[in-house]
Amino acid sequence: MSEVPRSATEPGAFSEWLRRSTWVDHVLLAIRISVAALVLVGLAGGLTAGTYSAADFVSFTMFGLTIGSIYALIALGYTMVYGILRMINFAHGDVMMIGSFAGLFAAGALNDAGLLNALPLLALPLVLAAGMAGGATMSLIIERIAYRPFLHVRSLAPLICAIGMSFVLQYAARGLFGTRNRAYPGFGWMEGTVSLFGLIVPIPQIVAFIAALIVLAGLLALVKLSPLGKAMRAVAEDRDAAALVGINVGAVIVATFAIGGAMAGVAGVLYALVFKQITVFMGFALGVKGFAAAILGGIGNLGGALLGGLVLGLAEALGPALVLEGFGLPAPYQLKDVIGYGMLVMILIFRPQGLLGERLASKRA
Amino acid sequence: MSKALDVSNLTIAYGEIAAVREVSFTVEAGEIATIIGANGAGKTTILNALCGLRDVRSGSIRLGEDDITALPPHERVRHGLSQVPEGRRLFGRMSVAENLEIGAYARRDHAARRHDLDHVLELFPRLRERYRQLAGTLSGGEQQMVAMGRALMTAPKVLLLDEPTMGLAPQIVDLVIDAVRRVNGEGVTVLLVEQNAYSALEIADRAFVLESGEITLTGNGPDLITHPRVRSAYLGYDA
């Protein structure tokens, strides 16, 4: 019984591993190796093919950062709610859609009043504020209907309710707003491009990236420094202990949903500015992307949501040109969602705690 | 003397099963009271019901003049009730300083808060050395000090302590018990729940023995130490 454990460097380590591992481990290892091989071969092919110039890659990177910061804004809502309730808000993508439409109507009203281009510096913040208000309101309604009744019950009911709310929102929006693609009225000053370090970049992309950074910085400051942020962190760590020091747990949960919804609203408006068109069904796909970003970074971790969003955005923007192109696929950009969702699956299998996350689920009984 | 805590006919149930049945007791202002009892007798259940973390089926809880039976937990803290929970339940990813400050979360009297913080650091000088450290990295005894300090930062009139000496080394147990005494000496009413019955009874003005959800014996602490049933059941002497 007193067998000396072999270290991994000893020659017997591999046979020892073979003996201890199951066929599931072997399959997982095979998947790991083949994914790595696919990426490496694709990378080698993509870099040598020379289809794209260095300038192209820089502009892909900038686009990746822009869409990544929008993913990060959505991911924050998932991760904040998860941090506090240990639940995923499956209607969060549709909160973003509602925020986006709130921005659309605000922009339309400002345009009708002739203010959109007369007061450009005021109009954009107003549109963003409308998006935030729409997102926050929707998020509060979801909290009230799907989550609060189950606050003291351990069940999956909130998740099912949230999925139900997601469909209610989508089809209510379809009935009220129609299924056609909608576009924000043009902000005159956002048309065209600027030349940045010798690169041609569309203005909305820069505006979206900067706006996202400002909002993200504001949120991180709020959580790190304000009393509300401190209360949110306390509730996330231990709900009962937080109540015992006089924190109104219910109010903190409501505030968390409101803030997450406002972030999603900003994301919805910025998405509309960059991609020029929105539909009532946009919430599902973008919601899953935001969810993937939150998982990628480590769910429950704010910095992780930020990192996960940017990594996902960059992977989607650079992946087709860098990796898929190398296989000579005819239309690599049609496959960018394969990269996004593929990363979600891979992360869940191989690193479920995400890039920055800890294994929390088992710690909290 | 006036009643600091008055519990009458408290019944608490988990589903169909009553964990605590028709329990009544009173703690006078300025006293140290203790509830002793075996594992599963319902001690923690009672404390959690007092704090509002568990719903009661019937009965009432009065804190001083106020009926707090229906108040949510954070409102009870505002009325002057605080608990040091079992297992300490610190915010492990916050520093000692943040844990103490968050104890005063609901208070707006900044000068008094600062005064109380100095007071806590005087009571537990060790915390001054650990001030910027993450609470999760402290030793068990130090964590207990933070937990007590955090509860004191709410400026309680009545302080509930759930197994504060559990798992601590003997000299740390003495330090914690001594701190309880000093806090009480400053006018805070204390309700102490302990499995370490001897330490608790030694300092208690009033003691309740809880058995299967009912109070079966009441008396002052030193008297109960000599009570034959307490001696055999909780202090480990032969009957």
From TrEMBL, chain A:
Membrane topology reported for the UniProt record: Multi-pass membrane protein
Keyword match Cell membrane: yes
GO molecular function, one term: L-phenylalanine transmembrane transporter activity
One Gene Ontology CC term in the entry: plasma membrane
Keyword Coiled coil among record annotations: no
GO biological process terms on file: D-alanine transmembrane transport; L-alanine transport; L-isoleucine import across plasma membrane
Compartments, as annotated in UniProt: Cell membrane
Alphabetized InterPro entries for the sequence: ABC_transp_permease (IPR001851), BCAA_transport_permease (IPR052157)
Membrane-spanning residues: 27-45, 57-78, 90-110, 122-141, 153-173, 193-220, 241-263, 295-318, 338-356
Stretches assigned to coiled coil: none
Keywords: Amino-acid transport, Cell inner membrane, Cell membrane, Membrane, Transmembrane, Transmembrane helix, Transport
Record-linked CDD domains: TM_PBP1_LivH_like
Family: Belongs to the binding-protein-dependent transport system permease family. LivHM subfamily.
Protein name (Swiss-Prot/TrEMBL): Branched-chain amino acid transport system permease protein
TrEMBL record, chain B:
Keywords of this entry: Amino-acid transport, ATP-binding, Nucleotide-binding, Transport
Cross-referenced SMART domains: AAA
Alphabetized InterPro entries for the sequence: AAA+_ATPase, ABC_transporter-like_ATP-bd, ABC_transporter-like_CS, BCAA_Transport_ATP-bd_LivF, P-loop_NTPase
GO molecular function: ATP binding; ATP hydrolysis activity; branched-chain amino acid transmembrane transporter activity
GO biological process: L-amino acid transport
Keyword DNA repair: no
Domain ABC transporter: 5-237
rRNA-binding listed as a keyword: no
Name of the protein described by the UniProt record: Branched-chain amino acid transport system ATP-binding protein
Matching PROSITE patterns: ABC_TRANSPORTER_1, ABC_TRANSPORTER_2
Family: Belongs to the ABC transporter superfamily.
Coiled coil feature spans: none
